[in-house]
Fold this protein.
Amino acid sequence: MKVSRQALWLPIGALAFYAAIKLLQFGGMISKYWQLVLDQGLIMVIGALGLSIIYGFTGQFSLGHAAFYGLGAYTAGALDKLYGQGNPAFFLLSLLAGTLLAGIVAMLIGLPVLRLRSDYLGIATLGFGIIIKVGLDNSNKLIPMLGGATGMSGTPQLAKFDLIFLLTFICIILVRNFIFSTYGRACTSIREDEIAADVMGINTTRYKSMAFILGCSLAGLAGGIYAHRYPFLHPSNFDFLKSFDFLLIVVLGGLGSMTGTIITAIAWVFLLEGLRFVLGQSFIDWRGVIYALILIVTIILRPQGIFGGKELSILVPKLPLKAPGKEQQTYAGPGS
Amino acid sequence: MPVLEVSGLSKSFGGLKAVNDFNLTVEEGEIVGLIGPNGAGKTTVFNLITGLYKPTSGQITFLGENITGLPPFLIAQRGIARTFQNIRLFKGNTVLDNVRAVSHPTIKYNLFDAFLRTPRFYREEERVTREAMDLLEALNLAGKAHEKAGNLAYGEQRRLEIARALAAHPRLLLLDEPAAGMNPAEVRRMVELIRAIKDKFKLTILLIEHQMGMVMNLCERVVVMDFGQVIATGTPAEIRHNPLVLEAYLGKGATVA
């Protein structure tokens, strides 16, 4: 097995982070409240990585990411509440169901819309997000246990920090492996110039759909974990503002940077909680204003986002490939 | 068997006939020049051959197979690559990734191999990276492999577009004004480069160009278009004295000095 020494730093770094959190937990330094915030940060990492694939790497603008997050949450939550009885294997199965459902729905929406160029996906996903929100608000008329606008509780709270951390780590690795493969290169070439990619032999509809389905599945997984970490699901957790959360994270972190998405997702959750401390109840009213301000300031000062398409080498080590051959003859072209 | 056979090709945009009953046969190993005044429909012909536009009527046959109406990516995979008049690189990606992206259809690992990084993934990544570096080496761009394509100088971007087109292993290469905006010395080097890659990669080349020096120097056969139609075909020497061609370029009554 070929593994460069550089590639070992990521698991080592993850273990160190895990150990540090564990130590703080045993030392009683992390209150239940801040543990919840940290877990939410990790869940947001998974969901935001999904949007990062769709928007950051493939350039497809989606405004309905929270809808897929909500689909995953309600699917996994309801299934486990009905049949799970605290069985951990069933818990994992319900996560899988939420992930798959989000992916299938993404396929149904994506395949017709992604054939088109330009920003139709943004409009379609915006509409879809509103439909899901309205659907969840009225869900009790069809399935009483979903609770409709009063929310749903009773999902077994089986997602503990250890498991959330492990799932986040696995997702990071898988997304990294996807992006830094021929599939990722197909996606970024579509982002850079869809017509050129098409003319150069890349099936653009296929890879736009693949990115969209993969990204939405990650949102579904994040939602499923969320449902097992927060005892109360409410449609307002999955509305347009939540989609905007994901979008802000990806744009602020820098389009086309996994590192940026991961760090910004965690920082964003902590920032929101910090603001809740400072502003108290009025935070809810000020949220829209604060979002807009942060976005405007970023666009003016650092339009490429915090990481501007760069990656930390710990996350993306160089592939251990042999040095390329140099036996070729060189032709001096123009301008050389 | 001709590499490319275009017969009765027409394309209308509303009332405008951009290409009207266009016929062309390109034999294996030829370099054919496609010239004509601005707006004659040359780039439209390229867009029709590569599938970006669907023809209103007519047929395009490539290596004996009808490719009319196929989507661009399938035509590309059959062996037609092109460059663009207004350079269209994947600007935000590295030079190396511009070339490797185009190797995509040749990759022999699947999504599962990519996610789990199986030995097959490493083997294939190594292969396409080596091939891409060889191409960059051949076009004198290897030193810039890890720079962003958008940061290259103009001449380098032109060469990178050719490298990227070659990565698709084409049989037929369509070059849309490869020497646009270049000075005479650079044009001369571009001519050498095109000759060199033609021999090395066993290409057939169809070339749009406004720099007559380049066309006369490079092409064995020239096709002249005006108002969407072929008005003349022949060797560069024949074309130079064709009254119809002179009329198209210079107006009625023009003669060679």
Summary: Chain B touches chain A through 67 residues (CB under 8 Å). The longest helix of chain B spans residues 119-138.
